[in-house]
Specification:
By secondary structure, this protein is mostly helical. It is built from 14 helices and no strands. The longest helix has about 35 residues, at about 310-345.
Length: about 425
């Protein structure tokens, strides 16, 4: 982790942003785990209600993301980040209060899930647009690597902490911990003193114009278009695993829930390794070749899921290897892809481009899951997984136009 001793960590504004992200990331995982527990133990929710709870956390954020991209571009980013934290804190605070009063309902859980999902989407859009104002271009990869490494640690620590807190404190108090993490994040962000350059104000702003501008900037840039296509195809096909992975592991492989949880936790380990190793690999291979290789390994490793069969040790070996390879190399690809967008797109359109990417991923994942579910009903879960994994292996082909892109420097911001 040599980059942790470099120039990046002599940037006080970045350190505060990083600390805020670290605290809220762990807290968010606590709530993600505790919300279904609250629904089951407090309200006796049905499986359909739990599915609707997941939908409530995703669908509104897609719509709001499209509308907020232009707002982020025309505004100072820091107040938006702070507001997103405060809104999420207020929503989460309402849950333990209602639970203690005996008034918690599924309707309130739906609303809170939607508000937290929207707040998280806005935070991510603004955060990706804010980071280039805090760091020089040659530090963006290190900055994004640090953020993704923190997310990987949170993915391992957060669910484990949630389980312990729920057992010790009960689910309402566990959720209360998350509310305080959002408040602490807001305080850390409020302590950043580095001034932002005022954004250019467009006349007669329009949501539809903002949406068109975000997709237009992403599609119109020769280096960003391949990223958009690859991310869109990959996200849609990942819906296959989102819909069928748990069914395959629990029913086809007859694994217990604890073992599946351990397998999934290995993805956090892979993500951490991927975040730490992406920069040196990209310098060695060249940026374009590295992104192609990262995405290719991440997608091809999906074949290990339907390949998991036979003796239990062999099935687990396949699943562990998939989590390590898929999450690790996907994080490595994401870091380089986001850093490239931050370096080449004009700052006044970066928020809208971020919104376009977030809307694509938010819309195509559930659509892919729906298609995969229908396909599995027709041909079986394992066969559907083979088809989804094989198709995913072809998604890196969209990155071939970037093959000769070097790692040392990108074209100037706003260039082709």
């Amino acid at each position: 982790m040599g980059w942790m001793r470099g120039e990046l960590f002599r940037r006080p504004a970045f350190l505060r942003l990083w600390a805020a992200q670290a605290v809220s990331s762990i807290g968010s995982r606590i709530t993600r785990t505790a919300l279904p527990v609250l629904a089951v133990l407090t309200i006796d929710a049905s499986p359909l209600a739990l599915g609707m709870l997941i939908a409530a956390s995703v669908v509104p954020s897609v719509l709001v993301s499209l509308a907020m991209g232009g707002v982020v571009d025309r505004s100072r980013k820091l107040p938006i980040l702070i507001a997103a934290d405060l809104i999420r804190a207020a929503a989460v605070f309402s849950l333990p209060l209602a639970a203690w009063a005996g008034a918690l309902t599924m309707a309130q859980l739906y609303v809170v899930a939607a508000v937290v999902g929207v707040g998280s989407a806005i935070f991510q859009i603004a955060d990706n647009a804010y980071l280039p104002t805090l760091l020089e271009e040659d530090l963006l990869v290190a900055g994004n690597s640090t953020v993704e490494a923190t997310e990987a640690v949170a993915e391992v620590v957060g669910p484990s902490a949630a389980g312990a807190l729920i057992q010790i404190l009960t689910a309402p108090l566990a959720v209360l911990v998350d509310a305080f993490t959002y408040l602490w994040s807001a305080l850390l962000l409020a302590s950043i003193r580095k001034p932002e350059v005022p954004a250019a104000v467009e006349e007669s702003p329009s949501v539809w114009r903002d949406i068109a501008r975000g997709f237009g900037a992403s599609w119109g840039h020769a280096l960003v278009r391949p990223l958009l296509l690859a991310v869109a195809a990959s996200t849609f096909l990942h819906g296959t695993f989102a819909a069928l992975y748990m069914i395959y592991a629990l029913r086809n492989l007859a694994l217990d829930v604890g073992t599946v949880g351990l397998v999934i936790a290995m993805g956090g380990v892979g993500s951490l390794v991927g975040a730490l190793g992406t920069a040196p690999l990209s310098r060695r291979l060249g940026l374009g070749r590295a992104m192609f290789l990262f995405l290719f390994i991440a997608e091809v490793s999906g074949l290990l899921i339907p390949a998991a069969s036979g003796p239990i040790w062999l099935a687990l070996l396949c699943l562990f290897a998939h989590q390590l390879l898929s999450d690790g190399f996907e994080v490595a690809f994401t870091i380089q892809a986001v850093s490239l967008r931050q370096r080449v797109l004009p700052l006044d359109v970066l928020g809208r481009s971020n919104a376009a990417f977030q809307a694509v991923t938010g819309a195509l994942l559930p659509l892919g899951a729906l298609v995969a579910g229908q396909l599995a009903d027709l041909i079986g879960v394992r066969t559907a997984l083979w088809i989804g994994a094989a198709a995913s292996a072809a998604t890196p082909l969209f990155l071939l136009p970037l093959w000769r892109l070097g790692a040392d420097r990108a074209p100037p911001r706003g260039g082709p």
